[in-house]
Every structure is written in structure tokens, then in C-alpha cells.
Design brief:
The complex is a heterodimer of chains A (494) and B (358). With 494 residues, chain A is an alpha/beta fold. Chain A has helices at 122-131, 144-153, 172-179, 181-194, 209-219, 239-247, 267-279, 309-316, 371-375, 382-390, 394-399, 410-414, 421-493; strands at 24-25, 31-35, 45-46, 53-54, 59-62, 71-72, 77-86, 94-102, 158-163, 199-205, 225-230, 262-266, 285-291, 299-304, 324-327, 334-335, 349-353. Chain B has 20 helices and no strands. Chain B has helices spanning 16-38, 40-64, 68-72, 76-86, 94-107, 122-133, 135-138, 155-164, 169-172, 177-186, 191-198, 201-206, 213-216, 218-230, 237-256, 264-269, 273-280, 291-311, 318-335, 347-357. Chain B is globular and about 65 Å long. The chains are: A alpha/beta (494), B mainly alpha (358).
């Protein structure tokens, strides 16, 4: 089946130099730092106290609220402390993290008995996924179980498995499909089972012929699962673009893909779901592509969550001091301020880029060439939006589509003037969030003030009423007294 | 703490400088052919115009307190000067070139705020100012005198023409095809009779006709434009819409009255249409940003050009057509935008999408 054309996009140099390097396990370091927020939603709540002994795979922090995920210990040892540690975010601001010391004994927590997932009801599958703390491993980190439940509550006739890996450099999903084909396929069939057997399409970019071949072969056994090669074009792996390419339908603005009956899961998520549901193993490791010109031994590594990037870079070797360390791919990944930041669930790549590799462009004035308009997969006018944001006209920028921007960075990549367009949109979206928070705060204050006013009025009224009652009582008493006196008088007279 | 830069961490191959360099490269064959046709005076005028454009750019940057070498390195002033030289009569005196560059760079560009800020195409603005201010100098065309032929001038004679003007005007002047056609039609002659003595499609295509440097070799500018399209420096929308609308209008009117209106090929090969369609109307700064907007812009240029050529006050209307559409560009950009993903879009867009789905 040929796809439906998508708008815009760019074609960056692929640089997928690690696509032939076998996944290698990295030994667990002596100390792991597990941030309590490795997913979208509320941070997990620690359920172990400092000093407590944990086994490998033990639940150490419980997800709380509707959208959250559990966190498990990737090694056996003990909880040293719960501290503030720089978050995997450009700001490097501290967030709560649990420090786990590895005793190197690899004692496993008793895992639940392996089950045949095809005898499980969809709700039970979602529950087992939730117990294992699986989140969207493509980078979105949305809790997978929440997504499955959402898909179960809507009618979901189409399941798309995203094996596009459209970011340059990254090859971890490619390697997973090549080396652990059966496990990935198992995960896909479990996901399909959890959604009551929708039509399942595995989308893989054409630059991964080996993965396409192997997955195609593995999919032949299943009736309703098929592989669909998609053109190599960034950002094909973006949820909205991939859905349009495969189904020809667009997710309406402000709606979820579930609203049009489509669910999207990543290859690595499918692999983690397989381990979680079939073997009851929680998510404690993930495959990460380590690449960049500053790395001596680039490759695909299976890394325990919580391992510091500095430890990882030491393991892979550094040729030079990297000019920039990026978590994720080069198009949407985040530059981190220093290497003392742990690998988290959403980290699919660690790039140590040399100075020559990093785009260091001098910014020129905009020449209105419209390259950004052509590159935008969402049909926005990046140049106009950026101009408005430069002048702090946030509302005007929202009017022309700031909220629709997916921050894919195609505009910045394509701009001949080297204008950091996506940076402005990131800023604008940040402003929107803080504005919404401020509004919530203001509303709360307003509500409290209003409540107080109402309360005061009520109290005032009650007091007045009480006073009036007392007055009436006094008056009544006086009247009674007077009446009594009067009643007495005649007696006196008499 | 150093705030880490935001994504993306890699960038595409194009920069303003490479874009401008590609434009210059695409202009080169047509320019060399024009200089070959008109000899030393053409070369001198070309060099003076281009150099003075860069000099005015540097002066303006200096006055504005901007980094001079940084902005001069983007080559945009050189492109403007070069394009302006393409539209001047090749034997025009030196001061036409210098004054033109002044109008283009100072009035057309830096008064608006420099690169990217101008509303009108600087080269076309300058050409229009010169045309209305110095009608004699700006309409003195000469017949080609290629290098190596007996009529060609030597260096010193060539320099004297650029420095002091043409001494014996009547002996060398020769009307351009479009100008001649306009005069003769005005005198009541019929088009086929006029063209017999004057117009040869092959000569128009290769450029051995009188006109400005950029009005001569239609084929070389077409090739240069196709090169820019292949390199994705310009998109097809403006040139195709512009040339297409001219061709369609010409075909319609030629069918109605062949004695008065030229055929499509005559219009496509004459005047500065090729240069204008590929190099001038496509100026990114002064044309719309969306693809649909570009089509409207190109078609508008074509329509205005055709109107001016046939019924206006001047034989050629490229500059006027482009300037008028430049003025309409903010309006086009305001109303014609791509549909945002997941939004309904306009009623017209919805209608077409339904048609496509069937």
C-alpha cells in the first residue's frame, strides 16, 4: 500500500553509522541515580526508605495519579538516599532522585510466573504493563498502560507500530528489530491483543532494509500484522505525520489519535511490553545509541536506567572533550549542561558531538525565502510566528498556530539564515505553560477571595440574625415580663 | 552556568551566502553572453554598477553601525547590483550605473532597514527611478557588436563611451524589438509586417538582438533559472505561474487578433521576461512565502506584464509588474497560508480536498 503524502519535512544527513553494531550490555555501575520523574505526568512516590535493601527489579517508587509510572531498581543493593539531582533537561535544575548502590550480586526480586499473554484479558495486559513501569520509549515517555486503557475505552481499529526512527544517528530501534525480532514481534502481538485485535501496521523507514526484511518475515505468521516501508523523511516518525501517511487522516487539532481510532506505539515500547507481560520483568534497562564524533566506541548499548552519562561516556571512551552532549537525536534531543545526568526511560540516544559536527551558525537576518514554510510538516508559517514571538506577541503567535507546532526543528534545520526558529517556539510554549499555571494560581486566589467574601457575608448575616433573634428574645422576654407585671398588678389591686 | 543551546543540533546545507552564490553562478552565462554581444562598454558598466552597489552597501552598514564585512560577505548587495546592471542599456554612461546602485541599495534596501526588510525589489525600484528620470539614457539601445567582429570597439573607445556617453548616437542606436513593435503599431502598421524585418526567434533566444544585457539571451537565462530550480534555491511556482500566464494570455489574444498581438513564443522570448521570471520575481524578500501565494504572485506579475506590454505606456513592463506585485505581497501573505495540520482550513480548501478524495 502506498502511503498518503505528508506535508513538508526535511532530509538531514542520516549518519546512522551504528546500524551494524550489535547491542552490547553495559555493566551496571556501583551507583545509580533514579529520577522519580522519568515520564509524562506526576512524579513517582518513593516506597523505600534510605538504607532499605532492594533486589533487582524491585518496585522502589510508585506512580501516583492518573498519569504516572512505577520505577524499579535496576540492580540489587540498597537505597542510599533520596536527593536533589540535576534533571535530564537543558536547565539542569534539580529534581528528586533516588540513589541506589549496586552490590553487584544481581539478586532478583521474585518475578511473577511467565504467562501466555493470549490467555489474558485486555485489561489484565494493561495492568501488567502498568506494574512494569513501561512508558513510551520513543522519547514521549507517556505511560504505556494509560495509553492502552485509553485505546480500550475508545474503538481502536488501527494500531501503528512506529519503527521509523527518523532522527539521524539513532539506530537503537533498528538494532532491536534486527537482533530481537521475535521479542519485538511478541510485544506487538500483545499490544494488538490488548486492543482487541486491531489492524496492525509496522512502519519502518526505507533506510532500514534488513529490519524491514526480518520484521516482514516474522509478521507473516500473523494475519492482521503487516510491515509497511515508509519514505526516509524527517519527521516521518512523528505521531501525527505517521498517522496521516498511513491512514490519510489527520488528527484534529486538540484531539488525541485515539479519537480517530488510531493508537501508536514505539518499537522499543513493544519490546518492553513483551518482557513485562510475558516474563513479568519490569523496565530497568533500555537500548541507547551512543554516537557522535567525540566517541571512541560508538554503538548500541543496553544500559541500566539511572547510569550517569559520565559513566557511560567513560565506558565508550572519549576522543576529545565533546563540544555538546545531546540526550536523544540531533533534531529534537536536548543538549545537557554536563555529563552528570542519568540515563532515563525516554533517552534513546547519547551523542557526544565534536565542534566540527555541531551546527554553529552565525545568525543572518531573515530573507523571507519561505524555506521554513515549505519545511514545516504542520503547515505553519515559522518565520511569522518567530517574528511575533521576538516582539513578545504571544497571543498573536497562538492565533497563527503556535499550539500546533510539534517542535520538530525542521524549520531551524532548513533556514539558510541560521535563525533558531524552533527555539523561539519552545520559548513561546514555555510561556504558555507558565501563563496557564499563573492563571490557575490567579483563579485559585480569586476563588479563595470570593469564598472568603461569601463566608464573611454569611457570618455577618448570621451575626445580624443572631442579634435580631436576641433582640427579639429580649423584647419578648421584656414583653412577657411586662405582661407578667401587668398580670401581677391587677392582683395587687385586687 | 552556560545555558545549553536548543535543538536541532545539526543544520541544513544552505546559508544566505551559498544561496546568493548560486544565483550569481546561474546569472553568469547569460551575463557573459550579453557582455560578448555589446563589448567593452557593457563590461565597464557592469563592473561599475556591481562595484558601486557593494560600496553603497558597505557605507550604509558603516553608518548604521552594523558589522560591515559580515554583511557584505552575504553577497546580497552584489546580486542586487548585478541584476540592476542586467536591466540597463549596455552603453549607458557610468553615472547611470552609480546612481542606479545608489537608488537600489540606499533607497531600495537600507532605508527600509537592510537585508530582508525591503518591500520592493531594490534592482527594479532603481531601474524604475532611472527610467522615469532619464528616459533618453535609459532607452538608448544599440545593435550588438560582438567582440572580434569589425564593428566592435577597442578598450579605449569603449571606456570613452562609458565615461563620456555615446558621441554619435544616431549611427549606432537601434530600437529593441518590443519598443519597435510598440512604435509601429502606434503608427497603424500590422504586426506581421513589422516583425518580418525585425524579429527572429532564434536571434531572440540566443541574444544577438539589441536590448539590455538581461534582455538578450532568453535561453541562457532560462537555463540559469532551471539550474536554480534543480538546486532548490528557487521553487517552480513563481516562474511557471509567470511564464504560464503570459503564454496563455498571449495565445488567447493572438487567436483573437493575430494582426495586433504577438504569439506566445514572441512574448516569451522578448524583453526581460526570462530574467524577470527566474531571477527578479523570485527575489525571496519581496515575494510571498507560501507556495500558493507564489503562484498568485507569479500569475499577477504575468498579467500586469501583458497589460503593460500591450496597452500600457512603456514597451516593456517587467519592472512595473514586479513592483506592483511586491506591494501586494504582504496582502497575499496575510490571506494565503498553508492549511494547518488538523484544522479545517478555508471553505475553498475543504471543497478541493473533497474533490481529491472523490
Amino acid at each position: 500500500m502506498a502511503g498518503f503524502p505528508i506535508r513538508g519535512g526535511v532530509h538531514p544527513e542520516e549518519r546512522k553509522l551504528t546500524s551494524d553494531i550489535t547491542i552490547m550490555r553495559v555493566p551496571t555501575p556501583g551507583r545509580l541515580i533514579l529520577p522519580l520523574k522519568q515520564h509524562i505526568g506526576a512524579p513517582a512516590k518513593p516506597c523505600r526508605v534510605p538504607g532499605e535493601i532492594v533486589y533487582k527489579g524491585a518496585l522502589v517508587a510508585r506512580g501516583q495519579g492518573n498519569v504516572s509510572a512505577h520505577i524499579h531498581a535496576p540492580c540489587s543493593g540498597y537505597v542510599e538516599d533520596i536527593i536533589d539531582w540535576p534533571a535530564p533537561h537543558p536547565s539542569g535544575l534539580p529534581t528528586k532522585a533516588m540513589v541506589v548502590i549496586n552490590d553487584g550480586r544481581e539478586i532478583r526480586e521474585d518475578v511473577s510466573v511467565p504467562v501466555n499473554p493470549f490467555y489474558l484479558r485486555p485489561e489484565v495486559i494493561a495492568e501488567r504493563v502498568a506494574q512494569s513501569g513501561v512508558v513510551g520509549l520513543g522519547g514521549a515517555t507517556f505511560p504505556a498502560a494509560v495509553k492502552l486503557t485509553l485505546g480500550q475505552s475508545h474503538r481502536t481499529p488501527v494500531l501503528i507500530i512506529n519503527g521509523c526512527e527518523c532522527e539521524p544517528y539513532l539506530t537503537c530501534d533498528d538494532r532491536l528489530m534486527q537482533e530481537r525480532t521475535q521479542d519485538v514481534m511478541g510485544g506487538i502481538s500483545i499490544l494488538a491483543q490488548a486492543l482487541n485485535g486491531p489492524e496492525t501496521i509496522i512502519a519502518i523507514e526505507e533506510n532500514k532494509p534488513e529490519a524491514i526484511r526480518l520484521m516482514h518475515k516474522a509478521a507473516e505468521k500473523f494475519g492482521n500484522i503487516r510491515v509497511m516501508p515508509v519514505p526516509t523523511r524527517y519527521p516521518m516518525g512523528s505521531e501525527k505525520q505517521l498517522i496521516e501517511f498511513i491512514t490519510g487522516r489527520q488528527v484534529p487539532a486538540g484531539k488525541l489519535s485515539a479519537d480517530i481510532g488510531v493508537m501508536l506505539h514505539n518499537i522499543a515500547t513493544a519490546y518492553a511490553v513483551n518482557r513485562a507481560v510475558r516474563e513479568g520483568k519490569p523496565l530497568t534497562t533500555r537500548i541507547v545509541t551512543v554516537a557522535g564524533e567525540a566517541i571512541v566506541r560508538p554503538g548500541n548499548y543496553e544500559i541500566p536506567l539511572g547510569m550517569l552519562i559520565s559513566d557511560l561516556l567513560e565506558f565508550c571512551g572519549l576522543k576529545e572533550d565533546p563540544a555538546r552532549i545531546v540526550m536523544g537525536g540531533p533534531m529534537m534531543g536536548q543538549a545537557i549542561p554536563h555529563a552528570g545526568i542519568p540515563v532515563t526511560k525516554g533517552c534513546n540516544g547519547v551523542l557526544a558531538m565534536s565542534a566540527a559536527e555541531v551546527a554553529r551558525r552565525v545568525e543572518h537576518p531573515c530573507i523571507r525565502c519561505g524555506t521554513c514554510v515549505d519545511a514545516c510538516p504542520m503547515g505553519l508559517s515559522p518565520l511569522t510566528m518567530a517574528r511575533l514571538l521576538m516582539r513578545d506577541k504571544l497571543d498573536a503567535a497562538v492565533d497563527i498556530g503556535l499550539k500546533d507546532c510539534i517542535l520538530c526543528g525542521s524549520c531551524s534545520f532548513a533556514c539558510p539564515s541560521g535563525i533558531p526558529l524552533a527555539h523561539y517556539f519552545n520559548y513561546g510554549k514555555g510561556e504558555l505553560v507558565s501563563r496557564a499555571q499563573q492563571k490557575q494560581k490567579d483563579d485559585e486566589i480569586k476563588r479563595l477571595i470570593l469564598g472568603r467574601q461569601v463566608r464573611m457575608e454569611r457570618q455577618e448575616k448570621e451575626r445580624e440574625e443572631a442579634m435580631a433573634r436576641r433582640k427579639a428574645e429580649i423584647a419578648a422576654r421584656k414583653a412577657a415580663q411586662a405582661a407578667a407585671e401587668q398580670a401581677d398588678k391587677p392582683m395587687e389591686v385586687a | 552556568m552556560i545555558i545549553p543551546p536548543s535543538s536541532p543540533h545539526i543544520a541544513g546545507p544552505n546559508s544566505v551566502q551559498t544561496v546568493m552564490l548560486m544565483v550569481l553562478l546561474a546569472l553568469l552565462p547569460g551575463t557573459m553572453s550579453g557582455i560578448y554581444q555589446f563589448g567593452w562598454p557593457a563590461l565597464f558598466l557592469f563592473l561599475i554598477t556591481s562595484a558601486s552597489a557593494v560600496a553603497f552597501e558597505a557605507t550604509c552598514l558603516k553608518i548604521a553601525g552594523k558589522p560591515v564585512s559580515f554583511f557584505c560577505m552575504d553577497l546580497s548587495a552584489l546580486v542586487t547590483g548585478w541584476l540592476l546592471a542586467m536591466t540597463l542599456p549596455p552603453w549607458a554612461p557610468w553615472w547611470i550605473g552609480v546612481l542606479g546602485s545608489f537608488c537600489a541599495i540606499v533607497i531600495g534596501k537600507h532605508v527600509f532597514g537592510g537585508l530582508g526588510q525591503n518591500l520592493f525589489n531594490p534592482a527594479m525600484l532603481a531601474r524604475t527611478i532611472l527610467l522615469v528620470s532619464f528616459p533618453l539614457e535609459m532607452t538608448t539601445w544599440i545593435a550588438p557588436r560582438p567582440f572580434g567582429t569589425p564593428q566592435s570597439l577597442d578598450v579605449s573607445a569603449g571606456w570613452s563611451i562609458t565615461a563620456n556617453g555615446i558621441p554619435n548616437l544616431d549611427a549606432v542606436s537601434s530600437a529593441s524589438v518590443l519598443g519597435h513593435v510598440r512604435t509601429e503599431i502606434g503608427m497603424g502598421h500590422q504586426l506581421p509586417d513589422i516583425l518580418v524585418s525585425m524579429y527572429d526567434p532564434v536571434a531572440s533566444a540566443v541574444g544577438s538582438i539589441s536590448g539590455s544585457l538581461g534582455e538578450t539571451s532568453a535561453v541562457l537565462f532560462l537555463l540559469g533559472g532551471l539550474f536554480l530550480m534543480a538546486k532548490k534555491i528557487i521553487s517552480w511556482h513563481i516562474p511557471v505561474a509567470l511564464l504560464g500566464s503570459v503564454a496563455v494570455l498571449a495565445a488567447i489574444f493572438h487567436l483573437i487578433d493575430p494582426l495586433r498581438y504577438g504569439d506566445p513564443l514572441f512574448h516569451l522570448l522578448s524583453g526581460g521576461l526570462m530574467l524577470g521570471a527566474f531571477f527578479i520575481a523570485t527575489d525571496p524578500v519581496t515575494s510571498p512565502v507560501s507556495s500558493m501565494g507564489k503562484i498568485v504572485f507569479g500569475a499577477g506579475c504575468g498579467l500586469l506584464l501583458f497589460i503593460i506590454r500591450n496597452w500600457g505606456g512603456y514597451p516593456e513592463g517587467m519592472a512595473f509588474a514586479v513592483l506592483l506585485m511586491n506591494a501586494a505581497t504582504p496582502l497575499i501573505d496575510h490571506y494565503i497560508k498553508p492549511r494547518i495540520y488538523g484544522h479545517e482550513g478555508s471553505a475553498i480548501g475543504r471543497y478541493f480536498r473533497q474533490l481529491k478524495r472523490g
